[in-house]
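COMPLEX REQUEST
Ligand: flavin-adenine dinucleotide
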Amino acid sequence: MSDDLMFDVVVVGAGPAGLAFTRSLAGAGLSVALIEGQHEAALRDPAFDGREIALTHHSMRLLKSLGVWDRIPAAEISDLREARVLDGGSAFALTFGADGADRLGVLIPNHLIRRALFETVQGQAGIALMAGRRVTACGVGEGERRAWLDLDDGTTIRARLLVAADSRFSGVRDQLGVGVEMDRLGRSMMVCRMRHDQPHGHVATEWFDHGQTVALLPVADAEERVSSVVLTLAAPAIAGLMGLSPQAFADEMERRLKGRLTGLELVGTRHAYPLATTWSRRFAGEGFALIGDAAVGMHPVTAHGFNLGLRGQETLAKVIRSAKSGDICSGRLLARYEREHRLASWPLYRGTNALVRLFTDETPPARLARGAALRAGQATAPFKAVVKRMLTA
Ligand SMILES: Cc1cc2nc3c(=O)[nH]c(=O)nc-3n(C[C@H](O)[C@H](O)[C@H](O)COP(=O)(O)OP(=O)(O)OC[C@H]3O[C@@H](n4cnc5c(N)ncnc54)[C@H](O)[C@@H]3O)c2cc1C
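STATUS: Structure written out below.
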């Protein structure tokens, strides 16, 4: 008799997408294995990773329906009341307000969302959490439980459906032979919290300065004097900043912010993320599906990756819940997920990449074009409405 472990669904990766998907299958009567390389303690109490996630209204509703929202401390949720886009040294700003609503969206530290997601999955009926284990090989063959995975502890798992949620550098995607369009941008994004003199007023700023991109995101803080500072530069320049003492770093950031914020002081740790965008050539096939960053790895500048990941897992869970249990691996069924999620992702992925190209191109025509684009954007109500819908839907 085979010692292989048998499940209906096996999910690789307990990041936000894998956890949310597992949660979305609660009550569907399916046995689910969730495999994660990190140890359980790191999932139970994830460390601060610098990311402040801007959630759309749709994501907020979804987190509420999954029982995640109430587990996030209210004092850590920062309202986003206005967003401004600035270009170089120009004083002009393209602005988006809440227009009657109480807020554009919210910002929440990534590690707190992950902790809340893990709490909802823990103890869920039918779930086997396998933390501290990595997938070494996997594939999809024939038969009822056609997906197979070998883990680094010697275990073999068989399942009807294999779901890859193992990041934009997905090893499962490679093992399945699914191609990916990847752009390693040669740039890194550094994120940290900084205290400053001026109250942030819950306004987020995206500043495409010449030679650097800076985002200032309002953090929940009684005095409104702490922001998340997100700086994008060539990878070696970011490595240099990471090595500075806290005081030298604060001085350097004050110089870079050119008076936008003063009295800067580093609060906590700095984190650097090398930037790469990825678009998988397929999101699904017979016996497998890709979700989260494993399907689409967005550039973080438009703050859509997490939100898209939530949306994609919701679509896949709906498709699976609509199937008879034996059918959950059918390529025809999973093609519905692939179609719907590609349609939702494609404009955001291409649009974000085009925006990044325009706003990081330092040639004189590009500089002219982006100044004109911001002014036209401010004056064109339909354009603003479309961008705002993208930010908040
Ligand atoms: C600086 C920054 C700011 C961002 N801000 C925003 C924002 O404001 N809004 C927004 O929507 N998005 C934002 N994003 C994007 C968002 O963080 C990602 O889209 C999201 O984390 C992707 O989740 P995921 O679960 O798909 O993948 P990941 O978070 O990468 O998780 C993948 C998991 O898989 C595990 N894993 C990998 N390989 C294996 C293996 N072989 N075996 C077992 N386990 C494995 C990993 O340990 C990890 O836990 C930001 C990203 C960055 C870098």
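REMARKS: The chain has a mean pLDDT of 93. Residues 331-360 form the longest helix (30 residues).
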